[in-house]
Design a protein that fits this description.
Layout: E1 3-8, E2 17-21, E3 26-29, H1 51-59
């Protein structure tokens, strides 16, 4: 899979980030919340990212 960084909230590697793939999908890097109380299947996960990241991606016409 080819991954391209679209937008991030900072320049280091441990920040919320959105990536595009050559599969036509997005990958999201962010914190994994544990206090949500939801039933998530074992093959899935939740990732928490700030709204600022989505707003920046939209404002920059990246998504």
């Amino acid at each position: 899979m080819k991954v391209t960084k679209l937008v991030s909230t900072c320049d280091i590697t441990d920040c919320p980030t959105i990536y595009a793939t050559d599969r036509g999908t997005l990958l999201v890097q962010g914190e994994t919340p544990t206090d949500h109380g939801l039933q998530i299947p074992a093959h899935e996960t939740l990732v928490e990212i700030p709204m600022e990241l989505i707003q920046k991606a939209i404002r920059d016409n990246l998504i």
